[in-house]
């Protein structure tokens, strides 16, 4: 009855972390995700840009080795016999490139939070750094780790909805409806640290990424109308985007942080010549599938109608919901499988999939194109 | 417990119909809508452009007087002592103007299906004809007759969601996913009869109308990317539209006839500085209301939380669903109330609301602007 | 695209009404239901037990003939050349028998609200009266008029879920959570007028009826635990019932008027050896069907997957909701079809189905058995 | 924005496991649950009743110490300086008592899967064993770990729905609709290993437990109609139960393993004099709350309207779903908090709650009473 991801515990991967100190949100999520399937062991960290905070946080987490900064950490860990094999980078966006570079050039695998960087220049440099490194680079576009997102991707690839015509993707939130001063809000609305995109960078990139991931379509150009509704806000908090894909498919993308009643309402709908697929992050264990002219079908995670791509990432029976942390953990598990294969000089099994540095570059390009298009009154901008 | 619309049967309004013969769809809907609250009596018709069909259909319906064409009908009914007081025009779009004109100029009230006309030129002429007539003109943008749409409008007007920032409206269908040859599909995809807009005209106008009706916002300009996905189709079957409103609100509008799994999935979401509202035509008895920072609330038709604007259009207790025909009948009932007031030289009660010829012109302008914008690669086009 | 019920207007059936004066609820529903498909014309009434009220209400409705009491009406109408062919009885329950008898014995068809009567003695007498009359007797268990209830019944009959094992049916409301003094509440909680069952009679009978209608199972016995939670209430306001059917199927039935958050939440779930069906009155255009081991399917009224039994009772395309009034009107339309066949001495088409006097007796027996079982501490009571 | 459970990693609790070898389902769930919040470290195990399997499984899991049987494990671990502090017992039901006893009498805390035991005799002995031990006993009625179940409990305790009248609880599944031969199905349908209850014991106990947990009501008696629908099945696969609680509240409980279309559809609805609450395990991040006479409100985990009892068990922001594993982990986290307090001789904070051995006894009594009542034709049986 229960299929899917098994526990493998021998030889946990030694993991470090950059960022993710006491008052950070996403660092804790990465730690749970790394721990869930027991494939990683967190042993070292440079958990804050303030050395004292780093030490305090390291003590709370019981880390073996705590560093004052990421460069020091990269240098020393690379020399240790049992130094870290991989590092999670969970800092604000503008630090991603500098931190990742230090580890990549020393052959330490990087698991990096999204968006890839705060600037397009940095993103391109990071792609080069990753390409010239033997180490792996994994970007945590975590929503691609949801089993039913994999299911949707597999069904599209299998031709079950035919040639795609229309892509509707949206990610509305409401937490920035009013001016907020707490830490999470503060750096995310500061263009120096977050990048020129606000909602666009923080959540629009997720929407863009998942749309491309599921459809397999190559985006060609976009037209964007960005707004900063909250007085004084320096980055967009609402974005309306038209998309054109190679081959003629068209899309709409909406990301917002000012839509009261929406928590994390990422939703993807894809329509092809033969059928439609609909998925929502807030109800992630279900995928609606309509073969044109037939009744809608509700495919459930690990249940009837679910295929290999979804089942290999499931842990518990259908009807027992898995959620955000499990989806995030699936990215870590994929990373672990790739690293374990890497250890022995092999490529991972082809079923192992994770977002790459190229996906990250695409995301930063998306943000840059949105900003550029909006500045030109929503003119079409090519996505290279 | 039961509030709302009461039956008033004395002095039913004598009604005629143009179009709506045997094999038409919307004619039957108009007849049920006119009958539901017992305020109209259908007595005459020119039910088809083919005289034989008109006579056949008239016999089936048991009409008192059947005419070969609408002009003849207008002339003769205007002369009868107990001739029709109002006429429903339910022909294909390109006939609306010519038919309506004949009745308006003879002082017979017109209840006309949407979109107003198939061309902008006709629409402007029809506005003039209506303005120079003493008779009333009612456009059946029927979705504005749903009680919870009225509820949403009332709440916006009362400031319950604050100044509006974002409007998301969509109307996807799937019935034209493949080439169709039956009558309903045939004239709707013929630009000569339907107008230059396909999905845009047939359902996009509904979406546009309901967004304006609920928000009270004045649309300023739009940018549209229209597609005709089905090979050989001469009008759009999918439209992606960006909207800008006076005062700074922004919107997205999607209408599609090629989205498998969508039947008549008109949905409106409006977000303001203080809260959000969400309504879906396929589940019309409910309105989601989120005051920012509080739990979502489900307001039900005729139930707790529903106000006067909704309750006066309700017939049965909450939990007993009312649907499409009841919403359509509400437009007829509003029309009847206005006509009854007109009989005695009065204005109707201010709570009586129905879509006007000006709303119709706005809809045709919307279609024209979409087509124009799309032809210019989604450049912004003003909505006058 | 649009299938289903067509309008037939020639020779409307002349209808009378007993009860249903100004301040009644269900009378208005019956009138709309009778009018919707244009098969009846209301021409006479004895609308209240108070002659003045009857006359007032008759004037408001514009009736041709208004009577002071139902007996007078039955006698005179039977003598008229164009007297009523059918009568709707919409009084409180305790009047049903006496009124129905007068019309039945004069050959006037009776359309009677449920439950059949307030006592088992009356119910049995009414069965006799109906059986010895040439006239038809139709009971408005209106929920059996919903197209998707017909769909469920057809699927069960076709063996699509196999031999039935479990039936779960419930009808919770909340409107009697506190003591209420208005008219609807008042007679419904008076055992003299409502019968010995409260919630059991008013809504439990609907739940019981729909379960039997859809499954085709014959109930064998029940065990009931009834409560009157609101202080001073003289009839049950909450009922928990275990059911046993011939052939071994088992069921649970819950009816309540004290369940806050429930409006008219009638819901039926049926499980067999091969699959399951689920339907809810508040979302009536959909039927969930799960063939065991396959994904759930959502069958929509008039849409893909819907069969003849549902489609012949549909008026508008899928995605345009039909509701309570349309379901109620379907019972009237079935009655009309039967009466029209009767006029010419024929049996109606076998697809014409309506609840009969025998169904009514079964409902009253159900109430009596619930009361008896509860008085015996939920001992099993046979349903004859 | 993010509140709730923080990570505490210093001094992980040393944990052993009895059962949970390679091909078991629930063992893996317990291990993830123990690991999620990083408060336990699994170091020892007797993972199977077959020594070879135990050793194999231990090797896969990388355990420090693997034993051939639980008694040997209890004896040796108790003597080790750094032996286990707690043990998870995840064997089939009939082994629970014998295993738990060995650890309890040596002062090792026991975390035991439900139902408590396979017989009432064993259950009573286990209560004694727990009461006479200084060690803690935690029963994994995991659904009580869902934050919104805690929310519901808190709201009931705060009087937000008033005095409770009606409890509706159900747990339908469909996986035993047909005869199944795999391991999970096999022991669960064997009365020697599972106990005399089938669905009643496996899932009915969960439904019963959660109803009591949320309402705080004391069940007084029940009447049960059990069925074994699948030919040859030796325990019930469907149970219909009426409940009476002290103080006059009444309930219905349905548990089934033969209801196609239901995966793990545990659902609880509670209605009081002032309002209603509704929660569903398959959509666990939401709680519906209806204050009588007001619109329904949707309270979301960690979102607006959620209180301390729920928020302290939440990890991620609202709209990012937590699921079954997180709820299960909450029980482990509560256990950890209690064990950590125990280490220093303290009682845990009063907000720490977990199911106890007494809850376990109540569950076994529930099963025994169901079986007894059903054997007596659904006569009422007292729950002591």
Automatic annotation (TrEMBL), chains A, B, C, D:
SUPFAM superfamilies in the cross-refs: Glyceraldehyde-3-phosphate dehydrogenase-like, C-terminal domain, NAD(P)-binding Rossmann-fold domains
All copies of domain GFO/IDH/MocA-like oxidoreductase, residue ranges: 149-278
Pfam family, one: GFO_IDH_MocA
InterPro entries to which the protein is assigned, alphabetical: Gfo/Idh/MocA-like_OxRdtase_N, Gfo/Idh/MocA_oxidoreduct, GFO_IDH_MocA-like_dom, NAD(P)-bd_dom_sf
One GO MF term attached to the UniProt entry: nucleotide binding
Record key words, sorted: Oxidoreductase
Gene3D superfamilies, A to Z: Dihydrodipicolinate Reductase, domain 2, NAD(P)-binding Rossmann-like Domain
Domain spans labelled Gfo/Idh/MocA-like oxidoreductase N-terminal: 13-136
Enzyme Commission number: 1.1.99.28
Name this protein carries in UniProt: Glucose--fructose oxidoreductase
Native species: Ruegeria atlantica
């Amino acid at each position: 009855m229960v299929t899917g991801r098994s526990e493998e515990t021998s030889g946990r991967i030694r993991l470090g972390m950059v960022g993710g100190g006491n008052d950070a949100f996403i660092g804790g999520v990465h730690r749970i995700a790394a721990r869930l399937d027991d494939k990683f062991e967190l042993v070292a960290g440079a958990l804050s840009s303030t050395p004292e905070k780093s030490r305090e946080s390291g003590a709370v987490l019981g880390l073996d080795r705590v560093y004052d900064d990421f460069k020091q950490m990269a240098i020393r860990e690379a020399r240790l016999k049992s130094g870290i094999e991989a590092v999670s980078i969970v800092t604000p966006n503008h630090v991603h490139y500098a931190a990742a570079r230090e580890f990549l050039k020393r052959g330490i695998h990087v698991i990096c939070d999204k968006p890839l960087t705060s600037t397009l220049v940095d993103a391109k440099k990071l792609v080069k750094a990753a390409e010239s490194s033997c180490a792996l680079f994994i970007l945590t576009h975590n929503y691609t780790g949801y089993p039913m997102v994999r299911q949707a991707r597999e069904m599209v690839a299998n031709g079950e909805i035919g040639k795609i015509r229309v892509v509707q993707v949206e990610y509305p939130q409401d937490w920035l409806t009013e001016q907020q001063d707490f830490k999470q809000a503060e750096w995310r609305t500061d263009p120096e640290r977050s990048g020129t995109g606000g909602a666009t960078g923080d959540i629009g990139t997720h929407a863009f990424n998942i749309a491309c991931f599921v459809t397999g379509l190559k985006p060609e150009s976009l037209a964007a109308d960005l707004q900063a509704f909250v007085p004084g806000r320096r980055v967009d908090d609402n974005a309306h985007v038209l998309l054109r894909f190679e081959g003629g498919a068209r899309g709409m993308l909406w990301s917002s942080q000012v839509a009261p009643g929406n928590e994390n309402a990422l939703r993807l709908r894809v329509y092809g010549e033969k059928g439609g697929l609909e998925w929502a992050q807030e109800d992630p264990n279900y995928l609606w599938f309509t073969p044109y002219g037939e009744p809608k079908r509700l495919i459930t995670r690990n249940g009837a109608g679910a295929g290999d791509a979804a089942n290999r990432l499931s842990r518990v029976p259908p009807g027992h919901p898995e959620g955000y942390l499990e989806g995030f953990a699936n990215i870590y598990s994929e990373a672990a499988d790739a690293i374990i294969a890497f250890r022995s000089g092999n490529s991972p099994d082809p079923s192992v999939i994770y977002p790459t540095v190229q996906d990250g570059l695409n995301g930063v390009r998306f943000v840059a194109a949105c900003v550029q298009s909006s500045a030109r009154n929503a003119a079409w901008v090519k996505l290279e």
